[in-house]
Amino acid sequence: MWFFARDPVRDFPFELIPEPPEGGPPGPWALHRGRKKATGCPVSIFVYDVKPGAEEQTQVAKAAFKRLKTLRHPNILAYIDGLETEKCLHVVTEAVTPLGIYLKARVEAGGLKELEISWGLHQIVKALSFLVNDCSLIHNNVCMAAVFVDRAGEWKLGGLDYMYSAQGNGGGPPRKGIPELEQYDPPELADSSGRVVREKWSADMWRLGCLIWEVFNGPLPRAAALRNPGKIPKSLVPHYCELVGANPKVRPNPARFLQNCRAPGGFMSNRFVETNLFLEEIQIKEPAEKQKFFQELSKSLDAFPEDFCRHKVLPQLLTAFEFGNAGAVVLTPLFKVGKFLSAEEYQQKIIPVVIKMFSSTDRAMRIRLLQQMEQFIQYLDEPTVNTQIFPHVVHGFLDTNPAIREQTVKSMLLLAPKLNEANLNVELMKHFARLQAKDEQGPIRCNTTVCLGKIGLYLSASTRHRVLTSAFSRATKDPFAPSRVAGVLGFAATHNLYSMNDCAHKILPVLCGLTVDPEKSVRDQAFKAIRSFLSKLESVSEDPTQLEEVEKDVHAASSPGMGGAAASWAGWAVTGVSSLTSKLIRVHPTTAPAETNIPQRPTPEGVPAPAPTPVPATPTTSGHWETQEEDKDTAEDSSAADRWDDEDWGSLEQEAESVLAQQDDWSTGGQVSRASQVSNSDHKPSKSPESDWSSWEAEGSWEQGWPEPSSQEPPLEGTRLASEYNWGGPESSDKGDPFATLSARPSTQPRPDSWGEDNWEGLETESRQAKAELARKKREERRREMEAKRAERKAAKGPMKLGARKLD
Q: Where is the composition biased (Acidic residues) (predicted)?
């Protein structure tokens, strides 16, 4: 019944793209671009239209259809599907381009490299070797028109129309009847006498010589042109001459031709061919060989063709990571190849692998991911960063390896713009606070301050107000000089985020204290910052109408667009401090670098303890510097909203209680600040929960002081006691310390002049202890009185008589 008939072409799962044919090989076939209907994957479709009276051509086309369908080899055109009807033949293969069109396009784009040609010819010769030596087949049609190139730049052998068996059981070679193809026939075919001795591969190797000539010199005008090698490379000329020799007996077998060209110094002896051969056999290589290969691969990728990297190297890298346990060695070549991908391809192929890598516990992989984050961060969206990347990255802040902690801090410069409110303003700030206060590596503390200055513009207004001033002030007290410089530059980088009150009452007093820093680099940056803030204050003082404009960013929401200013202010950190960090960590892997005139951090067991802190020998100089610090603290106390000093000096007191004896340094001056705050507590506003930064003390906070040497040493000669200073009153400095009697506490080594042992919060506790002692004494006196009265009554009655009963 006719209505049940179906059109096989319409039901075919592939369709032709309505474009003109690409110009396939000379003969009956027309090459079209196509795609799979279900997925849209690109394919190539060879179409033959059956014409009346062309039975011979139809038989040739059907034979080619059958050969292509049954022959499977990596270097032969890959068959996907086919359709045979009474009107046409359709052969679907992988998406390819004819070699002639490919070479023309590459010449217009800048030319084809010899590396690519060497590998392409290697593939064609390998395909011929398979046909001749393994299948006993003669291709009989090797020419430019029979070679195709896939999207990875791989050369494929096609044009199987005139293939025949070398054993003679299928008849002789079919007649071509096409002049364009017959010009590639060897001269011995014209001799019909049969006296010429030849090998079964002789004719195909002659045609291979013609192909080599055309690749380097263009279309072959006539057979006589083969005598002139033209542009053929010198390393290939001797082997080419063997191919086009008049004696077919001396033409080499395809396998021997490959061996000759692969000899040291040969045309096919290069890194590109070796890389391709390794990739073809990578599944059977040993793990150690794979590791070495991937380590050396990234050095060669720059010289390799882009299409080869995208479509051949990349799939192998992804497979090696997914199934081959290649580990971190694939990261460098993977990101190098990723540069050739579009944004959509990167999202599909690279990002899923990157997300999986971040969950790895391999330290080498984690640190390489952090080092190369700049190459893929632009392709990560915010939900992915916050839910799948950041939770794994923050583990690096707690890692025992300093290099991983350092790279984790640096990576926050790239992640911060994509973090949500909770991760940026809470979780990240908690880790930064702990690193800046407790990390034993000075360079890491320095980079933490630098990073905070760069990402400050992304923080919310409340977090900026609560964190920045406290953090940079903490950095200015760091024993590591570059950290103090970073604190100053942090203030400068975020200068537009502070109100005029904060500039005058909080920032300038801190900066003024650094003008007498032992390091000249710190003093220089401090003076620059002071001049900057003073000019800002002066301009507002001259014209108060500018106040609103100057403070427009103080309460503004986080603005990524403002990051350029901070980057220019603190650009020094990425170059100078980064290299300094890695250098110092390599030299001192477990201890902080030695400081100058500042107490050192404690060192682990087995490491020599740092030298005692030098204290100025002249009392006058020491008193002068101490007074400068006290002036700074007093100025900070004048601000009612300065919660930083409350928490800072309280944490220093906690550290002082754990140290019985320590040298008198600048940090002792903070006790007066604390005392003044205790005495004026009624006049200070209460802390709001939002600004209670001390809630993170368990994890480490900005307010915790720097640990001081634990060795118990007497003060050096010339050191002035705290009680000898004149704290601004009319009394002379030789009077006793009015607080010494109040704060004296029993200890194994009493030091009444050491403020490190004082704890102002313990005064009330001592008062309660005194009352308890007084009550105990009264009870003891009462007990003694009662015993005395009983003794008196007993003596008055006299001794008891035998048998008398005691009535009382």
A: 755-764
